[in-house]
Each structure stands twice: as structure tokens, then as C-alpha cells.
Amino acid sequence: RNDSGEENVPLDLSREPSENFREILQNVAKPHGVSNMRKLGHLNNFIKLLCSIGQREENFGFTYEEIIVCLRLALLNEAKEVRAAGLRALRYLIRDTSVLQKVLRLQVDYLIARCIDIQQSNEGERTQALRLVRKIITVNAMLFPTSIANSLIAVGTDGLQERDRMVRAAIAIVCELALKNPEVVAKRGGLSTILKSVIDCQLSRINEALITTVLHLLNHPRTRQYVRVDVELEQILAPFTDFHYRHNADTAEGQLKEDREARFLSSRMAIVAAFRSWSGIINLCKAGNSGIQSLIGLLCIPNMEVRKGLLEVLYEIFRLPVPIVTQDFTEAFLSVDPARSQDTWRLSDGFVAAEAKVILPHRARSRPDLMDNYLAFVLSAFITSGLLEGLVEVVTSSDDQLAVRATILLGELLHMANTILPHSHSHHLHCLPTLINMAASFDIPQEKRLRASAAVNNLKRFHEKKKKGLKPHSLYLDHIIRKSVSSHNRRESHSRVHRDIYVIKDTEEALMMNLRDSHILNHKQNLEWNWLLIATILKWPNVNLRNNKDEQMHKFVRRLLYFYKPSSKLYAGLGLDHLKARQLTVVGCQFVEFLMDSDEDGQGYLEDLVRDMVAWLSSSSGLKPERCLQSNGLLTTLSQHYFLFLGTLSAHPQGVKLLEKCGLFQCLLSLCSVKNQDAVLKLAVSTLDYSRDGLARVILSKILTAATDTCRLYATKHLRVLLRAGVEFFSSWGMELLVTQLHDHSKAVSIEALDILDEACEDKANLHALIQLKPAVSHLGDKGLLLLLRFLSIPKGFSYLNERGYVSKQLDKWQKEYNLKYVDLIEEQLNEALTTYRKPVDGDNYVRRSNQRLQRPNVYLPVHLYGQLVHDKTGCHLLEAQSVVPDLSYTVRSPMLDTWEGIKQLKAALWALGNIGSSNWGLNLLQEENVIPDILTLAQHCEVLSVRGTCVYVLGVISKTRQGCEVLKQYGWDAVRHSRRTLWPVTPDEVDTQLTSELSSVPSTLSLNSESTSSRHNSESESQPTTFTDRFKTFLIDVTSDEPSFYLHSKPVKDRSPFTILASTRFVRTRFLTSLSLPSKKLRSTSDPKTPTGSRTPTELKTGSMRRNRTVTEPSVYTARRRCQPPNHRMHIHGSVPSQNTFVAYHMGLSLPLCLSGLSMCQGKATMMTTN
Length: 1172
What we know:
Blueprint: H1 17-29, H2 36-53, H3 64-74, H4 80-93, H5 97-105, H6 108-117, H7 123-140, H8 146-158, H9 167-180, H10 182-187, H11 190-200, H12 204-219, H13 221-224, H14 238-241, H15 256-274, H16 278-284, H17 291-298, H18 304-317, H19 329-335, H20 351-359, H21 370-384, H22 387-397, H23 400-420, H24 423-426, H25 433-440, H26 446-468, H27 475-483, H28 508-517, H29 531-538, H30 551-564, H31 581-597, H32 600-618, H33 631-636, H34 642-650, H35 653-661, H36 664-671, H37 678-687, H38 695-706, H39 709-725, H40 730-741, H41 747-760, H42 764-773, H43 781-789, H44 795-802, H45 806-834, E1 837-838, E2 848-849, H46 865-869, H47 873-881, H48 884-893, H49 900-916, H50 920-929, H51 932-941, H52 945-958, H53 962-970, E3 974-975, H54 995-998, H55 1065-1076, H56 1098-1107, E4 1142-1147, E5 1150-1155, E6 1167-1168
Parallel strand pairs: 3-6
Antiparallel strand pairs: 1-2, 4-5
Helix pairs in contact: 1-2, 1-3, 2-4, 3-4, 4-7, 6-7, 6-8, 7-9, 8-9, 8-11, 9-11, 9-12, 11-12, 12-15, 12-16, 15-18, 18-23, 20-39, 21-23, 22-23, 22-26, 23-26, 25-26, 29-31, 31-32, 31-34, 34-35, 37-39, 38-39, 39-40, 39-41, 40-41, 40-42, 45-49, 48-49, 49-52, 51-52
InterPro entries: ARM-like, ARM-type_fold, Pianissimo_fam, Pianissimo_N, Rictor_IV, RICTOR_M, RICTOR_phospho, RICTOR_V
GO molecular function, one term: protein serine/threonine kinase activator activity
Protein name: RPTOR independent companion of MTOR, complex 2 a
């Protein structure tokens, strides 16, 4: 305002306010005699006066109407500064609905719209107009005038072409208005403007905010009427579905390619954001010609540009990293390996703690991960719409780069389906008959057949890689895992990778020959030594300095010792990126172990090495530290790997004595209080062995309490690494250290410790230890409260809290407010995982968004009071006595969906009931109240779509137990029945007879335009048997023929199944055993005469009962297993299934043709993820 030339007009606040107002309004209203700059001064004085006396009308000396009439004249002034000041004065004046009504009655809104429309270097005026508009929305959006709405929408629609800098601000206000008064926006065409802006915007956080506005309107039936889903929502698909799409008609021909790429990017962001919300999923996946079917259908059209864009969309929807562009499958696959080296794993950043958080699994075994529920639904929708067939078409008819990307995506989705989809929805996905047919058929072009064969081989390699699981990338994490208690579960370690290359003969001649061939005795070029042979010698059975007194062996040791000593600067001077860096360090660790195994003979050499390392380490606290200990040296050279040598020693009792004798521990303790030693302390924390009580734990404790904030935070994070690695007796010492960190003066440290404690409590031993420590967590707010609630899940903790009257107080609090807070907590976590939303900074209510989405985050179900109480019979009785379940059931049966408060109450009740149903005790309470059918009804038919999503999550929580799975199964809802850590779940022993009724016979709308998918390739009568690898054999049948070739054994009508049993039982048995690698398990032939048809001997029943302990999806009620009979037992199969979508699934020795059907997310069956 000072830059505008405002004239300084004095304001005497000691005068009567009415006199001041009179003077100000007279000067503002005078048409002549008062300069514009003086009017500007008076308008600013008006705001000062208004702020000093408050908003009471009796103090003004004028009515609001009179004041507004005078201020209205300022908006007609020729000076933009005066108009801006008038708008600002009106913004301060409008304080409630009554004043706003007076402003609108005097038609000031047209003048405001005029200020917005004018674009003549008057940004200050337009900014004040937009601020005033937002004030109107805040006061009462339902009174928002259409005149201003028209101006805002016009700027939002055409502002980009006019290079209007206010266009984004105008669209943001339109979005805000659409949430509070959708009618005025919809009637003026504002929703089309928002959707047009979506395709205009390439910034993910803005793009997401725009599309989320429309999705919010689709969520509620009251606002859904304003959105034409088939027309408006699916505009975001247009850049993909319309090959001649032009966003702006006047785009120059030379800019078309660049413009098209920008629209692809915007559309991709919007599609992904739509699939992050329940309203988007339900509307894009509805039955009929839905958006998801349009997208998948595009995969069959040979447009490489569209295919590439769609693959990127699919990768992002399923939270998968996109491979690099290459024709080499191995290179592409390694680029998306979670265990690949990442920048955040460097010593200067998150180091081992960051790597372990990715590589080592979360301790939660049975705690539901809500992201699995979400992904299971989306994956089921895509698969039933024909995604797998579409990807096969891309693999076999695209260039090599696209084919590689599509193959990796296909492998990832098959693996995901096997992990998070129920057996009845996933067991038929792994045959891919289209791909196998192409690889084996000579009726299609050779290029296609070769591509299909390559894809089959690549999928096999993908599967083998997945079977191996994640391996640590750094030697530090590998060191921790090998030294921990869980090391016996690791099938291999880096020290044994090449051992079997050489046939080890336990003879002195062979040893001497290897010593000679290693070149270590006669060559001084260290890096030219045969390090593979050196490693072999160090691992030679029964060979050490104690048993072998030969001078050549001592020379071998002295040469190695000199190479590794820091003072020689040979090993220490090499860079971390040296080709042999990893191998040299591994051999160094083996050398240390070799010397330890040599007892007294190796003690002198080992002590020499350790003293040299301690001297090198001590120099860091001097005035002139060694180069390799300075920040750049330690971060870039192999000198940092000396800590691995020290860590190897600390894992052995005699090594600990040697380290203590050489003064290492004292050196590290002194470094804890020295500044700028973060890298050294990080290395020490990450390599020392804590499995035994001793000085290593003392050093860890000192770093946790006395070091800098950065070091304390890292050391706290390292406790999570030790927890996940299964370090011995963590509950007896690790929990105590974590409880100490809760009181750290740095909030980041205390919050991290709280999060680790929450994970640690997944193990009962840790929970018992925590209860014994009786931590104080009240200073940590609601998160501390949730940790304390975990005590209630075991009798000891319940007694401890109940004796202090804590339980009854918490029951009252949860009924009054915490149930509602729980909804906010869980939805905030889901929003942060699924969108660019980030939690506000402390004390800041501003909603923040990031440009980056998180890669596959976990959202483990937060602790709920009721969910903890039902784990014990006493807690269940307490809930029963207070009639908690009947009260919650009433809310579910009589929901108030008209207001957001009512919807939130309903969600709170649903989450509470879900947590109660997470144990068998609590599930009995739900069954007594018979509330589960009401939850299922809401899940399928609730008009508020976000409530359906909440119901899905809640049903997933209920299906956490086997009993819960069985209850939901009775209502036609399937659930996963294997543990989260079971990567390769075994299929059930018996065929589920209800499977047939759950798979619809409606075919997928996707039809692949390739010869391989025609009926003649799926017809057993027309295609000749082809010889190819047994691993991929499959037998197909055309079940649309008039006279089926195969028949089922006659059964009662109620047991009738439309499935056809195919292939010989001998072949099926062989394939099943080969695929599951269970050679010791033999299946009885289904035509074995020893067992009567349809019955079992007592021995069989007993055996089957025992075997069911290994299965994952069988129902608790035992059903007789259906047997395949020879062809002379016949029964016609009624009904037919289109052959193009029929394929074979191996299911416990039976071949079943199944068909995909279109999925209606709002009406059809649904899947839930759970873990037993």
C-alpha cells in the first residue's frame, strides 16, 4: 500500500467512533474535491477503526446498509488502488450471514465480478477481489452469487490461453465453492472447467486436488446428481481413449507431439488419483461400458504411445516402481528390485536403518495392513476386466522395450494376486493359456511365438527371483542378519557364495598348491592376487595357524595383515566404488575369523591388526585427523569397512576381550562426546554385536543419550533394525533402551522410539517386558495412549491398568470422543499412503501436499480400545456389561447419512465393531447381536461410497481369524487365510464346492484380436497335442460344443458343478507335485479302486485332518472331497461358457476350466485381505 502513493491521513482513535466513520465515509463518497490517494488513506483508516472498536453496529453511528452504499462507490473509482482498498474494506466488514445478505441485496456482487473480469495490470485489485470472494465462501457459501461464479469460471476456463496469472487462484476458489455449494458451480458449468483444468495441469499435487473435488461430489448421493459420471468423469480418460484428441483446437501442428505428451501426463495423474478413492473405483469399475474396460481394451490396439502411457498408469496404480527403458529383461528387473542400492542408504544419509526398513519385514504377523485390502479390490477389478490377457497381447505384439515392461508388470500382478487375493479369486490366474498357446503354436507368426516363449522364460526367472526373497545389499546389514539369532534361517551368506567352485581336498599338497596359485607369496601387486583362492584358503577345513606351522602359511598371513592394516594405506585407500571392494571386505572379515580360530598362534597377528585400527580411530579426536577419517575420506573409502572387522570380533567372546585389551571400547566412549563424529558413531552402532551383555550395549546406551541429535535419532532407528533382525534377548535390554528414548528432549527421537515400541509389541515377550517397565507416556499425547492400550490385550497388562482405574476412564472417553478421533487417525494415515497429502507440521493447520507419492507404504490397523479388550475374556465381559455392541449396532442399523457428522458417527461405529470382531471372543458378541449382515448390506448398497470402503476395511479386520472367515464365507464373502509372511501359500486339500456359485459365467468384455485366442486354439478336438516343456503343459477344452467330451461322476443336484475335470490324474499329480516341490507327498489316484467313490476311510479322514494344518484356505466345516471318475461314469454339464476366456487352473489334482466375469465393485462379490 505504501508503494501505491497513499496519502497519510491522520486517524484520532480518541474521538467518538461515529465521528470518525462520518469523516471517512464522507470523503470516500465525495465525487469531487478529494484526491484518489486521500480516499485510499481514508479506506485504510476505515479498516484500522473497524479492527479497534469491533463489529458492533451501534458503535458505528451508521447502519450496515449505509456503510455498504458508501463503500460501493469506491468500487466504481477509476483508480485501481482505490478499488482494491474498497474490496479490502468490504472483506473486513463482512463478518456474518446478515451482513453478507445486505451486501448482496445492494448488488455489490456485480461490482466484485467486474473487478475480477478486468485484466489491465491490476493484479492487486484482482487479488483483493479473490480474497473477498473466499471470505464470502467462508461466511456462507450457500448465498454465493452466480454473478461472481460466472466470472471465476470464465477465468478458469479461458485464463490459460489469455496467460492470466489468476487462473489457478480462480480454479482453486471454484473447487472450494464446489465442495460447499456444488449446485451453483454445477449449474454454471464449473465442473467441466475443473475437469478441463485437470488435463491442463502437470503438477501432481494440484492435479490431484482438482480431481479429488469431483470425486468428493460423487461420494454423497446429495451431490452426485450434479456430476454426469459417464460424460464428465471419463473426460480424464480422453487423451488415452481418443487417438485424435486435441485439448485446444488452436494448437499448432508443430506443438502437437509435445502437447499430447503433456496431456498423457495429466491424464495419468488423474486416473491414478481416481483409483485412490472409493468413489473413483466404484464409478470407473461399474458393470457395463466402464472406464476400466475402456483402458484395458486399449492394450489390444497396437498403438505404442498409448500402450506405454497405460503401462505407466498401471504401475502407479499398483504402487510398483517403473523399470528403466531397456530391451534386456534382467537389467529392467534389477532396476526395480527393492534391494537395489539407493541414495538414502549411504552413510551420510539413512544408512543401515533406512535399508533395513525396506529389506527386513515388519514384525506384524496378524495385524491387518489396510493397503492390502485396497490393492486386493483394485487388482480383482482389473483382473476380472481382462487385464492379464491385455498384458499378454502387449507382450507378444509390442517392441522389445514395451514387452519387457509388460512382462515385469504381468509377473508382479500374478505374484500380488497369489499373495493378497483369496484362493477362489486367484488360483485360476497362473496358467495364462493365451501366452502358453502362443509359445507352443505354429499357427501364428514366428515373431509372436518367439516373443511369447521369451515372456514365458522371463516369467520363470521372475518367479525364481521372487522365491529367493529380498537380500541385503550392504555388507553391514548382511553382517547384522548373519550374526543375529535368525541367521540359521538364512540359506546362504556372502562368505559361501564361491566356496563350491573349487573342490576342496583336505590335503597339505592341495593347500600349498593353492597358496602358490594365489600369487600372494611371490607378487607384491595386492589387487592382482587371486582373492577367490585366498578366500578358499581362509575357509579351508581344519586349517589354521595352530594346526599348520609351515612358514609359508605364516608368510601368507603376514602379507594379508600388511595389506589390511590401516597404517599401510593399501586397503584403506581404495574407493568404495572399486570393482573388488566387496570381495576384499568379505575376505577381510574371513581373515579376522581365521586368526581368531588360530588361538594363541593368531593372537599376535590379530592384536597387531586391532591395535593399528584403534590407533587409526583414535587419531580422529586429535588436531590433525587422518584423511580417511575426515568426512570425505570415511564416506568414500574402504576405511569405513574396518568397523565390519571390529564388529566381527565383537561377536565372539575372545574377540570382545581383545577389543577391550586394545582400548577400542574406551576410544568409542570418548568419541561419543566429540562433535562432528556422526559418521564414526553411525558405523560403530551399526556393526557392534549386542547379543551378549557387555561394553557394546554400554556404548549403544551412551550414544542413545549423550551424542548429537542426529546420532541419537540414528541409534534409535537402529534399534528397529535389531528388532527386525531378531537379535537375541531384545526384550530384556532393547525395550528398556527404547523406553528411555521416549523421554528424549528431541521430539523426533521420542516419536521414533514410540513407533518402534508399537512394532515391538507385536511380540508377546516384548509386550510383557514393556508392562514390567511401566513406562510414562502421557507426555506423548494420543500416540502414547495407543501404546498404553496394548497392555489390555494380555491379562497381566489388563490387571495393571484396571487396578489404577484406567480402563473405566478410557471406556468413557472412547464412547464420548475417541471413537470419532480414531476415524480421523485412520483416514489421515490412508490419505497419506494413497495421495500426496502430508501430515501438517505441529501447530500448522495448512494442508500440505508433496510432489512425490510414497512407494508401497503400509497402513497397519491402529490400536483400538475395544480391539485390545476382546483379546481377553475379562475385557469381553466388560464390553458386554456396558452394552457397547448393541449401541454400536444401533448406529449401523439406523445411520444418519444426511450430515458429515452422522457419516463420521457411522464410520466410528463400524471401526469399533470391526476391532471387536478381530478376536473369537469379540466375534461371538457380534454374532449374538447379528450385526454382520447389516455391515455387509452397507458394504454393498450404502449410498455414501466412502462408507462402503470403510465397510470393506472393517470386514477385512473381522476376517483376521479363521472363525471370522467362516462367518463371512456363509454370506458369500471370501478372505485370504494365510499369513502375510507365507509367500507361496499351499492350495487347500479339498475343492470348495461353493466355488462354482461365486464365479459368474458372464464373459469378460475384452476380446483379443489374435488367432491364439480363437476357439479353435481352445478346442481339444481341433488342436493336436504339441510337445513342449512339461512345466508349461496345459490341456484345454471347448465347453461350448454340443456334446462335451468329459463328464463328471453323477452327484445329487445340489452338488452339481459347471466345472469340467480335465486331463489324466497321473499327469495332474505329477504337475502338482512338481510345482509345489513336495516330492515326499503322494496323492492317491482318483481312479484307485481301493477307495470307494465319494467316500473316505477312517484312515484317510485322519490323514486329511492332520494335513489340513498345512493348508491355508479350507473351510472349518469338513466336506467330502470330490473324486474324478473314469469316463464311463457320465453326467452332462448344463450351460456353456465362451471358450475365449476359459483356461485351466490346477487345484489339488483337478483341472478346472474357469471364466472371468466383469466385476461390479458396488454390487458384486468382493475380496478381503487378512492374515491369520
